[in-house]
Amino acid sequence: MTSPGLTAQAVADLVGGRLLGDGTIVLRAVRPLDRAGPEAISLAVSARYAEDLRRCRAGAVLVSADLAEVAGGSGARIVVRDPYAALMRVMGALFPPSAPAPGVDATARLGPGCALGADVSIGPYVVLGARVRLGDRCRLGDGASIGDDVILGDDTVVGPRAVIYPAARVGRNVVIKAGAVIGGPGFGYRSDAAGHHRIPHVGGCILEDDVEIGSNSCVDRGSVDDTVVGQGTKLDNLVHVGHNVHIGRRCLLMAGVGVAGSTRLGDDVILAGHVGVTDHLVIGDRARVAAKSAVFGDVAPGASVGGHPARAHRQFLRAQAALYRLAPIVADLEHLAEGSRRG
After folding, report:
1. d(CA 221, CA 218)
2. CB distance 181 to 218 below 8 Å
3. d(C-alpha 189, C-alpha 230), whole Å
4. Mean pLDDT of 113-135
5. Mean pLDDT calculated for residue range 178-203
6. How far is CA 21 from CA 43, 54, 80, in A?
7. In what order do the strands lie in the sheet with 157-158?
8. What value does the mean pLDDT take over residues 112-137?
9. Rounded average pLDDT over 47-73
10. Ramachandran angles phi, psi of 97, nearest 5°
């Protein structure tokens, strides 16, 4: 992507940094340090990048204080306390998000009793059920489907072809990306000799403020309780949250995570990619679960676990190391056994 641009001085003013070098350089792009050209801004966060910084051709580089005086390089340097945070601000200024013009596309269908806030944008072929309430500045992408009695808070964005089932409650500043499904019936059955009989799901589905739901992720509604995703929590793509699950605030659930029904996650929990969590568990505040782990028991607050089944992370690493040492041990035993047979 390219941008109309900002001068290096404007960037320094924006992030509260100390400018070293030419403040008139115009920056129009963001690039990695080793591939940045004279119109790009980059960053260097630690001494391990010193050699790249000496050779770089970037128009400007956001650097920490310990890299401010590294010799070489071209363009300007902007000294900041946190280069990552500064770069986020710069990217937002260089590439401000474009918002569609307010209005309702002629192909959209609105059910009876809908209430639309100020400056909403409803794209082509969107379907709203009866009594839907949209807050101010909501944006609904092409083909989104919003069921009866759904409430969306101010500044919420629903991506193309996302589906929100009836009576779901979505807070303010929520992002639901393309193809996500919110509030569908969960996977609950009573089984007998005649087969599997679906359990009615009459609970709710609640997304609190500042939640993000990735593309093709599914958050099921509750069976008898509500499914709740807490304020500030972010779900990556292809995440599945089962019925009656309660997720706390500011959690991160990464690609391919599955959380089975009625499990409780505390605040600030991180589940790395492809973690599976069985039903009716409690994962405490600030717990961390390593990628590809399978969680079959409760996890204490602040614990870091990994493996299949998940256990204390250090214990898991020691077990893996021991496993890798088994192959030469087995080879030695086979050699001894062969020698014994020959003797």
Report:
1. 10
2. yes
3. 27
4. 98
5. 94
6. 15, 15, 14
7. 103-104, 121-122, 139-140, 157-158, 175-176, 212-213, 234-235, 252-253, 270-271, 288-289, 304-306, 311-312
8. 98
9. 89
10. -65, 140
Task: Phi first, then psi: give them for residue 310, nearest 5 degrees.
Answer: -65, 140
- Specify the pTM: 0.85
The residue-averaged pLDDT of 114-141 equals: 98
Q: How many other CB atoms sit within 10 Å of the CB of residue 173?
A: 17
Give the count of beta carbons closer than 10 Å to the beta carbon of residue 171.
20
Indicate the Cα dihedral angle 158, 160, 162, 166, nearest 10°.
70
Q: Map out the domains of the chain with their CATH numbers.
A: 6-94 (3.40.1390.10), 102-161 (no CATH), 180-310 (2.160.10.10)
Largest Cα–Cα distance of the chain, in whole Å? Answer: 92
| 333-337: average pLDDT | 74
Residue with tokens 């030419």: 22
Q: Can you read off the two tokens belonging to residue 88?
A: 């986020």
What DSSP element (H or E) covers 213?
Answer: strand 212-213
For 209, the token pair is 């403020």
Q: H-helix or E-strand containing 127?
A: strand 127-128
Which residues have a catalytic role annotated? Answer: 243
pLDDT per position as a tens digit, 254-305: 999 999 999 999 999 999 999 999 999 999 999 999 999 999 999 999 999 9
The confidence band for 250, taking pLDDT boundaries of 50, 70 and 90, is very high
